[in-house]
Specification:
The protein is of the alpha+beta class and about 250 residues long. It is built from four helices and 17 strands. The chain folds into two domains: about 80 residues, no CATH class; about 140 residues, no CATH class. Helix 3 packs antiparallel against helix 4. About 5% of the residues have low confidence.
């Protein structure tokens, strides 16, 4: 006896398309995970290559750990205990430094700084205290902002409210960078300075060396709200760089 074929139940008729959808979704997830992994490895490799290039140029570059996270859409690089020292002795140290990027936009990055850092300039150690210090890097330009900033070195202290600083290539001058700094509510050793506005240029040594050397800095504008504040600023800066103090007075 021949029995008539049974019709597939409704659920089974939809099982095939559902399985295909699951397979396509899983494949897309695997491909994206691979894409993110490639970006993560490239970001870590770039950081290590930069460190090696600086060491080859005579810099001391160290950290205790370097890691990356942010899957699926970010590439967040964290460097623990970074320390950099230039051949001339200037340097920088911090508890950590973070570089935040979107995985599909690796030509842009946000640098996140801790609230305490240490700078060494001309043999003088400068303690840096800040609130929400961030720097945005896009191409060859850098813009930095902070809600508050404080700099302290033996016998002197400079504090300010909101700070905006920028560094940009000067059009038509490949070895020149434009400098800009605006700091509000500035006080120097307790003397109110008001708003500090600085504009100028940084001249790089020509050539293909990485990183390029600094040939000099020219200030084209330095405005302060009070003459007493300018004098206090020059006196404080003189402890680090007499040449820079003379430039403050000249402006």
């Amino acid at each position: 006896m021949h029995l008539p074929p049974l019709d597939d139940p409704p659920a089974s008729r939809h099982l095939g398309p559902m399985i295909r959808l699951i397979l396509v979704t899983a494949l897309a997830a695997l491909l994206y995970a691979g894409y993110w992994g490639l970006g993560a490895r490239a970001t870590l490799a770039d950081a290590r290559t930069l460190a090696e290039d600086l060491r080859a140029a005579g810099w001391e570059v160290d950290w205790s750990d370097i890691s990356l996270r942010g899957f699926p859409s970010r590439l967040d690089l964290t460097v623990e205990d970074p320390s950099v020292r230039l051949p001339g002795g200037d340097g920088w140290h911090a508890p950590f430094l973070q570089s935040l990027q979107l995985s599909y936009s690796r030509d842009r990055a946000i640098l996140v700084f801790p609230d305490r850092q240490t700078l060494t300039l001309s043999g003088t150690e400068i303690a840096v205290e800040d609130t929400a210090l961030r720097a945005s890097i896009r191409g060859s330009g850098i813009t930095a902002e902070a809600e508050t900033l404080g700099l302290s070195w033996p016998g002197h202290r400079v504090t300010s409210g909101p700070v905006l600083a920028a560094l940009r290539p000067e059009p038509g001058a490949p070895d020149t960078l434009q400098l800009y700094l605006r700091a509000d509510e500035v006080r120097v050793d307790g003397v109110p300075l008001g708003t500090l506005l600085i504009e100028g240029r940084a001249f790089l040594e020509p050539g293909d060396a990485l990183p390029p050397g600094l040939a000099g800095i020219e200030l084209t504008r330095l405005d302060t709200a009070t003459s007493a504040g300018r004098a206090a600023l020059a006196g404080a800066v003189a402890a680090i760089s007499p040449a820079a103090a003379a430039e403050v007075q000249r402006q």
